[in-house]
Design goal:
Layout lengths: L5 H11 L11 H4 L10 E7 L5 E8 L3 E7 L7 H15 L3 H9 E6 L4 H6 L20 H13 L3 E7 L4 E3 L8 E4 L11 H20 L4 E3 L9 H7 L3 E7 L9 H20 L15 E3 L1 E7 L8 E10 L2 E11 L6 E7 L1
Parallel strand pairs: 3-4, 3-5, 5-9, 7-8, 11-14
Antiparallel strand pairs: 1-2, 2-4, 6-10, 7-9, 11-12, 12-13
Helix pairs in contact: 3-9, 4-9, 7-9
Length: about 350
């Protein structure tokens, strides 16, 4: 297993971070001007959204190993999109061994924003209120049909499905936030460890080993409960090994700029591992990654003398008058001794 040095990753990221993208509300108008920077790659409008916003793909490399990446199938989950443009800058600007190896051994097709209508509205669903991540079977949405067509035409060996997870998740048996979580999706209800899942797990093992050096004990394993209509589950079932990356919370990082960096680390290491590996059999350490656990609230107001009066709050994010808003909403009352707050007020 070849791993990129953390010090090298830090230098690469510092130089190549796409400075024009910041925060959580990332829309098509934010990424569209950036596409012209990558004219050395194959850029194609592969379709359009329900509201006729263009959806683009970017193809890099000339190798036989095919990798497909997509982000923002949920419009309000943009951390992976930022990391993708950081990665694109690397391929456009750097000529070092890492990127030569990747482009010589791999062909990568990236859809940086699958759900531009949801991105503009800052919603999980598309313009017709369809959750694209639960539309893999019916394919009612234009965007779902498009993703399936690209998948079948490109025929990748590995996919990276980029998401954000809520701030409620921590790492089991720690007091740490789940900053990045991984999943090798199940193919059927018994969660059988198929050969395809083993290969997916192998890639996750490589990413986890690297991230444990950067943010030890902040990496979780997302539940592998089988969802019959979910994208990852169905793509894995069809034989397209699909790595799910869930970008979570890092202390005091509500804009997910630190998490963006770790998402970039994971994605680049995963691609590099695929480029340099022939046998994807090192899957067992996947099960050593602790589970995600619901253990956090954004704010807890504690009353040590009257624990039954504790109050928990979560941030609700929305768009109003073309501005991104984050407001607190009370979500739970009672003894919260078994939970942690990202911020705590002790009365």
């Amino acid at each position: 297993m070849q791993s990129i040095l953390i010090s090298e990753l830090e230098n690469i990221y510092r130089q190549q971070k796409e400075q024009s993208l910041f925060g959580k509300w990332i829309t098509f108008s934010d990424i569209n001007p950036l596409l012209s920077k990558f004219n050395k790659f194959t850029i194609q409008q592969i379709g359009s959204s329900e509201n006729n916003t263009p959806i683009y793909s970017i193809k890099i490399g000339k190798g036989v190993k095919k990798i497909m990446i997509w982000s923002q199938m949920h419009g309000n989950e943009s951390t992976g999109t930022k990391a993708v443009f950081d990665l694109l800058n690397c391929f456009a600007n750097l000529d070092n061994a890492i990127f030569k190896i990747i482009t010589n051994n791999c062909t990568i097709q990236i859809i940086p924003m699958l759900n531009p209508d949801g991105a503009l509205a800052y919603t999980r669903v598309n313009a017709h209120q369809i959750d694209l991540n639960r539309d893999a079977v019916d394919q009612k949405a234009k965007e779902s049909k498009l993703l399936r067509k690209v998948l079948e035409d490109f025929n990748p060996s590995f996919c990276f499905n980029l998401h954000d997870q809520r701030t409620i998740f921590g790492v089991e048996n720690t007091k740490n936030t789940a900053t990045i979580s991984f999943l090798a999706p199940s193919e059927e209800p018994t969660r059988k460890i198929t050969e395809g899942r083993k290969q997916t797990m192998d890639v996750i093992v490589a990413m986890n080993m690297l991230l444990q050096q950067a943010i030890p004990n902040h990496i979780g394993r997302y539940t592998d409960e089988f969802y019959p209509t979910a994208t990852g589950d169905n793509f894995q079932k069809l034989g397209y090994n699909t790595v799910l990356i869930e970008a979570g919370h890092y202390p005091d990082d509500y804009d997910r700029e630190q998490v963006r960096k770790f998402n970039f680390y994971a994605l680049l290491q995963g691609i590099y591992h695929i480029a340099t590996t022939q046998e994807f059999t090192n899957y067992k350490p996947y099960f050593d990654i602790p589970n995600n656990q619901e253990m956090f609230f954004d704010v807890i107001h504690r009353y040590p003398q009257k624990k039954a009066e504790d109050i928990a709050f979560q941030y609700i994010e929305s768009i109003k008058d073309n501005h991104f808003l984050r407001t607190l909403e009370k979500v739970k009352e009672g003894d919260l001794s078994n939970y942690f707050g990202h911020h705590e007020i002790i009365q």
